[in-house]
Design a protein that fits this description.
130 residues; mainly beta; four-stranded antiparallel β-sheet; globular
Length: 130
């Protein structure tokens, strides 16, 4: 990305997310879990903030979906397709309310938390043509 480079070995049948850090213009490479159960949805949660550990929660912060994701890391979870309300929490403090999301079978959803006012929610697209 521009002047930023990062060498790493790409392995067959593995998935990666490459992130350009805005603060120091370096690349962060995170190996992602694959959604291996096509009957389920997958949620990927990336902590790109300056908070040492964050969790993704449901039910207004009462139920942990993905717990204790360290700064610069990601957490992954397969989940049944449901309509779910999600929030990013630092302990019991809700930092971001993602609102209701409808999760569909065999889809992957990624929430990138950079800060309270800097959140990206992405639904992946899969190319099934070979």
């Amino acid at each position: 990305f521009g002047e930023a480079t990062h060498a790493f070995d790409v392995e067959e049948q593995k998935f990666y997310t490459v992130i350009l850090r805005q603060d120091d213009k370096t690349l962060l490479v995170i190996e992602d879990d694959a959604n291996t159960n096509q009957a389920k949805s997958q949620i990927n949660f990336y902590n790109l903030s300056d908070v040492p550990s964050l969790s993704l929660k449901a039910k207004a912060g009462k139920i942990s979906v993905i717990k204790d994701v360290e700064q610069g890391k990601a957490g992954f979870r397969e989940i049944n397709p449901v309509k779910i309300d999600l929030s990013v929490a630092n302990g019991n403090e809700i930092l971001f309310d993602a609102g209701d999301k409808t999760l569909e079978r065999s889809e992957t959803y990624s929430l990138f938390f950079v800060g309270k006012d800097d959140v990206v929610w992405v639904k992946s697209t899969t190319n099934t043509t070979k």
